[in-house]
Design goal:
818 residues; Ubiquitin-like (UB roll); five-stranded mixed sheet; alpha+beta
Length: 818
Amino acid sequence: MKNEGLYFFSTKLTKKFRKKHRLFGVLCDLPFTLKKRFSFFLLPSSLFILLSCNPTKYVPQNEYLLNSYEIRIDNKDVNKEQLKSYVRQKPNKKIVGAKFHLWLYNSSKLDKTNGWNRWLRKNGEEPVIWQKNLTKTSVEQLNLFFINKGYYFANISDTVILKKKKADVKYNIKTGWPYTVSKITYSIPDTSIARLILSDTIHSQMKPGMLFDRDIMRQECKRIETNLKNKGYYSFAADYISFSADTDNLNRKTSLELIVKPHTEKTSDNQVVEAPYPVYYIRSLKVNANLDMQNMKEAANLQKTVSDTLKHEGISMIIPQYFPVKASTIKSATFIIPDSIYRISNMNRTYQHLNGLRNFQLITHEFTEVQGQTGLPVRELDCAINLLPFTRQGYNWELEGTNSEGNLGGGVRLIYHNKSLFRHAEFFDLKLRALVETVSSDQFRTKTEYEAEAILNIPKFFLPVRSQYFTQKYNPKTTFSMLYNYQQYPEYYVRTVFSTSFGYNWRGSDVITHVVKPLDIYFVQLPYLNKNFEDKLNRYPYMKNSYQSHMVVSSSYTLVKDMRLVNRDNNAFFIRTNFEMAGLLLDAAYRLSGQTKQPENAYEMFGNAFSQFVKGDVDLRYYFTINDNNRMVSRIFAGAGLPYGNSKKVVTNDEGISKTTVAMPFEKKYYAGGANSMRGWRLRSLGPGSFKDTTSLKISYPNNTGDIKLEANLEYRFKLVWVMEGALFTDVGNVWDSYRDNDRPGANFSFDRFYREIALSGGFGFRFDFTYVMIRADLGMKLRDPSGSGRWSFASKPDSNKRWDDFCVSIGIGYPFF
């Protein structure tokens, strides 16, 4: 009845559009049994057509709505997306091809001032009225762009089609032949400057044969300035560089001359004379950590302390007695050294490293030229660095929303943080939390969780060997962590987790981060199993293996490259690769000690069998901004784990039948489904492979995991009104076991059939961006379910009551694969 009502509403809504939209009329005239299958899509189609109605409702008489614009260009070497920024008037924004915000505005009544109509106008968008002068301005701006790029004879015109109160604008561009640079020469009177510039031309973007591109010429000026400022030329600026061009109009060739303006100074008798550009050295460095303390409420605890001036390795430091960071730590983060040549790179590195200590809310620096040095080829600078610290320690508590693997919950968290525990900028956090989470199931179930976690970040490599050079270059951090977690799920189990680890992370560049964990220890204990749950586990050895006490001792390496950190237009790649290896060292220690084990038993430590496996995965994402209102995000994930050695276990079921299972630890396996994966399925309810689990245990507590995972996602995100955003998405993928299990046919990965076991889902969702938290709700629909023989969701079902099993609602926090 629900489906029939939905069908009736959608067809009634679209009845008057049948003649205008012939294809839609054909869909509506399909047989009723087939239309029921498409009712999920008929309503969105109806709404789409509704949004397209009467967009010119509030367009004044003799005016035209700017309906569209198009750029036509005959040169494939020019990026059309780059040209769009020079168009001065653009149509109303669209969502999935419909002008939703214009429809909102047109839905209001302009003569009404009540709250509803004001809301419609505020969140909607006024019609963009085509203006001829803005079209002409766009042509002029495009022409200037092409002149800057060397296309001096580009022909740019506009064509405007006016029809039914709508204007469609086309910009027609014929670039013609560009001017190119045939030769580059240099005119640099200062021989010292000339030697440095000419020796570094290999890094220049200016090459013979390039377009006569003024943007590249400006970039070259900035590059030369930075290069010289790294060689001591503090006073040099890009404005001192100019270009002279000798053009051959017949061949459209340009001889380019780069000219560096001579340095001039006034003598004591006010004569202006030429002189070499001076080279600057650092005479002194003063670090002032007493920056207006009396006026800073944040530093009230330091007002009564005594400020001392001390010398530390040639640096003068004005530091209060109980300043949170010691002088030696500030010195190690400072690369401006007295008696050294001035380099702008050292100034930037100093700021980055001081900021990386996370103890200062304000960092400033200033250079002052020593007086009385006029006419000297070598001069000196005094440098002052001013620091205003954060409060060293604090406490806070907060209500917390969680989305643990797709399970929504909430709780209370108490946090103590100390930004400099031992006064060397060691960042210490102690977190205590208690929470309640709902668990994906056919019935409403909850679990309670209590957790204590301590994390200590040290701003250097904590190694038994000296690592000063590496620390200064890459600003690494050493992290120690310890966690205890208690989970109580009365219907199933009580589970405790203790973990401890230490590792290093550092920046290889502006976009690359390395994370190395030499040691990561993970203890899992299950002191309680519900009797009914344990009886079910005894019947299914593959499930029983996931609910046994175990231990994982692993090492891992992670590489992250995030181009969003440098790409301001937000069109960027993100890639994360991870490799993990567990149990190798412990296994080697047992073998070297001469201990042996029986085939049916495993090596143990502290009474727990430890796992052995290798695991690696790649997460690749691409973020594409269509415009301010629309964005596309795509993602590909591939991962595989191979359990071996001590991960082979003999499990006996309740019938006394023994079976050898080979599996990775439960928490290290891959899964699909839930709020952040295949959104047409509940958490851990998809896969593995084409295996169809019909057990009652699976229905009440889905636990489908695998050693291998392939997944791809595509999501289109768009802004709606207020804090609301919308999304359309599709997900494909599955998980598989790495070993064959006769009790679960189709669960293992096989090259000759895995492509037939790929699941497909799609759907739409809403996001609510409250600045500090993003809450989302997604409705996913199974389009192809590979379990059993595999079927499409539109295929007939023997039980019509299970039609709604193809749908899944997921509640999450934050964007999926952000």
